[in-house]
Design brief:
The protein is an alpha/beta fold. The chain is built from 10 helices and 14 strands. It has one domain: TIM Barrel, CATH 3.20.20.70. The protein is globular. The model has no long low-confidence stretch (mean pLDDT about 95).
């Protein structure tokens, strides 16, 4: 039985790990290297790090910190945050980052997707699509940590990113982020049906059944943060990951 990838998605700010709720109210949850070591022991499928400050502060990736983190990771490692140039892309790959994740740059220089794909192949390029849903139910893509509205439908954006060379899409519903009430299944279904590359659902997982629901709507993999770093109703910090047998029961 092939189980879909279940991916811890960790947010980094000022060198530490945080967790947000609807892209706000970041709560410190620990040291990135300690977290990676724990996930190594849990034998996770892969891991995603997103530096939520690298773009908004215009600092770009912190290569020194990333080099230390990547050296500890025994699983495929994906990184996003502040990537704006081909030189940064090459540097990240040279550090051992298997996948780079592009988000804000797709709003002003989408050609970087194509250039990155030419360097490492489409399998090494992920485009992260952060989406808000208006009170009228209309979806729109946002960049710069959810601050700037591209006024573009996520399906149209997804199709264009795949055309440019993205080999995977990370689709994140901003209003669901950190709520632990489930993914935006309608959004996942719309995007997954429109593209031929794997779609990774993000934003909202609170239990293992939510993973199954996203996969049933077309997600090839699921990513989550809160469920892997918080424990109990008081959201005490405890890094964990489900056992293989648990996942097998969910996806059978």
């Amino acid at each position: 039985m092939v189980i879909p990838r279940v991916i811890p998605l960790l947010l980094m700010r000022n060198g530490g790990l945080v967790k947000t709720v609807r892209f706000k109210n970041a709560k410190y949850v620990g040291d990135p290297i300690n977290a990676v070591r724990i996930f190594n022991e849990k034998e996770v499928d892969e891991i995603v790090f997103l530096d939520i400050e690298a773009t908004t502060s215009n600092t770009g990736p912190n290569f020194e910190i990333l080099e230390n983190i990547v050296s500890e990771a025994f699983m495929p490692f994906a990184y996003g945050g502040g990537i704006n140039t081909v030189e940064q892309v090459r540097s990240l790959y040279s550090l051992g980052v298997e996948k780079i994740i592009l988000n804000s740059v797709t709003g002003h220089d989408p050609g970087l997707v194509e250039m990155a794909s030419s360097i490492a192949g489409s399998s090494g390029v992920v485009v992260s699509i952060d989406v808000r849903r208006s009170w009228l139910g209309k979806y729109s893509v946002f960049v710069r940590s959810g601050q700037v509205d591209l006024k573009r439908d996520p399906v149209d954006h997804a199709i264009e990113m795949v055309r440019l060379g993205a080999g995977e899409l990370l689709v994140n519903a901003i209003e669901n982020d950190g709520m632990m009430e489930g993914y935006d299944l309608h959004l996942i279904k719309r995007v997954a049906e429109a593209v031929s590359v794997p779609v990774v659902a993000a934003g909202g997982a609170g239990n293992l059944q939510h993973f199954r629901e996203a996969v049933d709507q077309g997600a090839a993999a699921v990513a989550a943060g809160s469920i892997f770093v918080f424990h109990g109703k008081h959201r005490a910090v405890l890094i964990t990951y489900p056992e293989y047998e648990e996942l097998k029961r969910v996806f059978k």
